[in-house]
Amino acid sequence: MAHYKHKVFEEETSSMGSVHLTEGVTASSTHIRFYTGKPKNIWSRLKNRTSLEKVLLALTLLNGVILLFIVMLPVRQEKCNPPTHQIPDIYEDTDSFVSTGQDYCMKETCVTTAAAIIKSMDTKSDPCQDFYQYACGQWIKANPVPDGRSMWGMFNELEMNNQLIVKNALEAIPMNTSSKAELKAKMYFTACMDPNNTIETLGATPLQNLIKDIGGWNISGTWNVSSWKLQRTLETVHNRFNMGGLFYWMVGEDDRNSSRHVIQIDEGGLTLPTRDFYLNVTANQKLLDTYLDYMTTIGTLLGGEPNSTRLQMKEVIQFETRLAMFTEPDENRRDEEKAYHIMPISELQNLAPFIQWNLYFNAAFRLVDRKILSKENVVVYSPSFMSNLSALITEYSKSPENKTVINNYLVWQTVRTVTPYLSKVFRDAYKGLRKALLGSEGGEQPWRYCISDTNNVLGFALGALYVREVFHGQSKKLAEDMINEIRTAFKDNFKNLKWMDKETLIEAEKKADAITDMIGFPDYIMDSNQLDDKYQNLTIRSDEYFENNLRAIQFNLVQYLYKLDQPVNRSKWSMTPPTVNAYYTPTKNQIVFPAGILQAPFFDQLQQSSINYGAMGVVMGHELTHAFDDEGREFDRFGNLHQWWNNKTVNKFKEATDCMIKQYSNYKVNGYNINGKRTLGENIADNGGLKAAYRAYVKLLKEKKAQPNRLPAVHLTTQQLFFVSFAQVWCSSSTDESLKLQMEKDLHSPSQFRVNGPLSNFEEFSKVFNCQIGTPMNPEEKCIIW
Questions:
Q1: Which CDD domains does the entry mention (predicted)?
Q2: Residue (of 702, 671, 454, 474) closest to 579 by Cα position
Q3: Are 486 and 621 within 8 A, CB to CB?
Q4: What is the per-residue pLDDT across 615-667, written as a single tens digit (0 to 9) for each?
């Protein structure tokens, strides 16, 4: 359900926990240059350039001449302090498919790529000892975490470029535009930027009014416990304002019948990112104190008396700690078959009788004129959590004091959700907790925050603007071709798997063939009428930022409710076009690559195949492999959850995954070990994606469908370039705090092990870099799954 709606390639910062973790950036940005159609001759291009562009072009050409001179030298320049072993020249050994001699790519794209690669590499490091350091060492030195951020890497650089592109396009929209959706995006952005200081003038008033609508809060004003009803408060908070706590529910695809929708309920309700923050008090006391300070500050800003507010907020933390005690860790929730429990609402009533469930759901579906009967099925993903929650609520409902704690908790869950939409003093209150969690107080440029927030609310309207600016030419066709080549390479390797029986192999091939892909953007966003229809019922005003967000939250709730009686739309996107990420959805057996990630340095239609396949190709292979990771394998080619592997193959697969769990659990960062069980699915995808992309690339070379040219002044073969390109996608810097949080929460391994882990399991890598058996990058024991 919620934890496996879709698998993303890169964990989004905002999803690291339920606290508000929007990243801050202060570094400058530059546009990415995009090319479409046939290149013009240089003189006609120069005529249309500005003076500055002409100077920059001249410098680029001069740089190209210098690099050409370097690569044409009769004696090849050796690297300083080379490794103690000889890295083989692949050209000499594979002349059947790679031409020899000085075949260098001297296009502008290749020259600039070569310069970036050289600038990032630490060639003094031995690639067979630590390939991540070899590929990224100089980049890491030159790119400390910028002020206001907790992490920095290639994803962030591209995201900043995308934000600038969208901002320029958004600001250029005239107020009399015919596109209502794009105008709403512009108005939402304007409201966020607050040119008339409306947000500051209103202060706490919008949230205070919301608290009154909920029924009051003992912390900030008068509240009558004797007239309070949990049922009424939950229905208001969850089903009117689409916020709140205790548990999560939604309408989603039925795992066992992916053609239909069903109500789903799962555990939830914690504010801090993991249960361990509450339960391991010794290690996290300072963080818990900072969390209490934050809660107290917000409560006081809303009218609470400081001492009373602190005492009541401490009781809320104690309540959240009780929730944490029976919240299941992520690593124990990886078996989809065991997690799925479908039952009628009448059975849920017996399982968790702390509210009247039939009344609760009818309060929600009343918004779409849909009546819910007690025989309506719901999928409960954690029955033990719901049972324990019911017992906890029953216990707390016995006294007026503890009833107050429940209401304080529920209102707090709402308050903390919307404080980012209030004045600066509310936003600044979060800095201390953010620093404790991530090692940085933030400090994002307002326009960047507002672009990100607009993308969250009206992302497909922004997507139309973004796509018109950047996603031209043959990008979509090239991406589709790459996916098909990688899919074929992935399938071709099935016959080499010793643990898979023939019957399962045949079904696995069918599933791989059935995986659909969506690339760039949904077609409807380029039709202004269809785009307007999508946001027709969402009201946006340019001076009502807080209210815009409430309306957007309620708008999304209604969209979910309508889905219950509708068939699953398999062409529906869950990620907006400007997003720098990708995902796989098991119930649709579908991989999705937004236009935002199909940009340099991940992907460029003018780039060498070795670079495209090493960077974007591995992303594609990663998402494809998710269809066969420890969770994805439980869904068949139609997206339905059931066991389609025989027991013998399942057991052998688990033996192979045990090897990978052990491998990654032995990796340590700053004294903390990776949780190999929690990160298993992503590690399987990282390993399988690398191998599939490389095999697809080598096949292209053999068939002479890929450019065999080297890059100027980069003394690497095209195969070596593939691996360096792959590794440099993950060049990154992090604060110690954010790295610790990642180790405790993220389903992905830290960057260096997303590089070194898969490479050390890949024999072809060791051949390309001549790594001797027994070196760290070529261990004798390798964990091989796909």
A1: M13 (cd08662)
A2: 454
A3: yes
A4: 999 999 999 999 999 999 999 999 999 999 999 999 999 999 999 999 999 99
User: Two tokens at 597?
Assistant: 């990630």
- The residues that are catalytic are 623, 686
For residue 141, the SS3 value is helix
> Cβ contacts of residue 781 below 8 Å, gap of 6+?
659
CA distance 158 to 703: 32
Return d(Cα 411, Cα 687) in angstroms, integer: 44
**Phi, psi torsion values for 732, nearest 5 degrees:** -160, 160
Q: Which residue reads 């001069």 in tokens?
A: 62
Token pair 């690669």: residue: 117
User: pLDDT for 561-613, tens place per residue?
Assistant: 999 999 999 999 999 999 999 999 999 999 999 999 999 999 988 888 999 99
pLDDT attached to residue 580 = 95
Instruction: Convert the pLDDT of each residue in 60-72 to its tens digit.
Output: 444 544 444 434 4
Q: Exposed, middle or buried by CB within 10 Å (0-12, 13-18, 19+), for 201? A: exposed
Torsion of CA 31, 37, 40, 44, to 10 degrees: -70
**pTM of the prediction?**
0.86
Specify burial of residue 752 (Cβ count, 10 A radius: 0-12, 13-18, 19+).
buried
Higher pLDDT, 623 or 473: 623
Sign of the CA dihedral 615, 620, 623, 624? negative
Contact call for residues 684 and 629 (beta carbons, < 8 A): yes
Question: Hey, what are 170's tokens?
Answer: 């958004």
Token pair, residue 551, equals: 């309306």
Q: Who contacts 130 (Cβ-Cβ below 8 Å, separation ≥6)?
A: 752, 756, 776, 777
Q: What whole-number distance in Å separates Cα of residue 585 and Cα of residue 588? A: 6
Query: Which has more pLDDT, 43 or 543?
Result: 543
Q: Which two tokens stand for residue 365?
A: 């579906």
The structure tokens listed for 66 are 């210098």
Average pLDDT over residues 141-152: 92
Domains of the chain plus CATH, in order, are 1-162+474-525+572-786 (3.40.390.10), 204-421 (1.10.1380.10)
